[in-house]
Amino acid sequence: MTFDPNPYLAAGIPQDEARRWWHWHLTAEQARAWRRAGVTDPALAVQWATAHITPETVGACHVAGLSAAEALLWHEYEFELDDALTYRKQSLTPDQAFDLVRGREPGSRDDPFGSLMAFTGGGEPQDPTQRFLARAGRADALVVYGYIKENWTDDEAGAWAGHNIDAATARMWKELGLRPSEAARHVRRGLGPMAVARAWWQAGIPFEETASWAGAGLTPAEAAGERARGVTAEQAEALRALRFDS
Predict the structure, then answer these.
(1) Per-residue model confidence as pLDDT tens digits over 147-161
(2) Can you tell me the distance from the alpha carbon of 234 to that of 232, in angstroms, rounded to the nearest whole number?
(3) What is the pLDDT of residue 125?
(4) pTM higher than 0.70
(5) What is the DSSP letter of 115?
């Protein structure tokens, strides 16, 4: 579709800025609504929209100090905005609130094998293995031993272990292209790599695009809808990067 600046100009949007809104598949009317709500970056507007926040509701987020990236995280845990703001006032994170509504102690983790925290000595790590143990935090001992057994104790391994994800499963998540924190959100909801891969395949999302869409915070159905609307995986990847920059 060829860019036509006239509707944007009629909405009071300069042509150079108009092209950016058009690039993100936002109409002149949508752009005007977001700008009136104080959101002037189209990529940020899309991130808000992905979290199911509208120009009419974004004001409540601003008042509460809720960022687009954080709103997206609450959305990934399937919380409506009102509930998210309520739990947030209680100083709960999305995963803690998720545990709470499912009857688990917020932030709890079964640890039948104990923790290796004591092995770090509580000081500054002096070698790669100590750094790995420090990053692994309170991961189950069996999980930690698995990484050590595979001689995978770099910083990346520490990040995966820190989410209590065993080495074999971490490699499967990596095959999907997901980062530790992204995979951990699926794990928290009881989903494994194969279940996630199957859901995205059933939605018709190419394997090589899955990480970009999932990392951007979209569900398979939402991603399929955005692709049908003309949004590209590259744009989804830009949204994904925006989350990590926030």
Answers:
(1) 999 999 998 999 999
(2) 5
(3) 55
(4) yes
(5) B
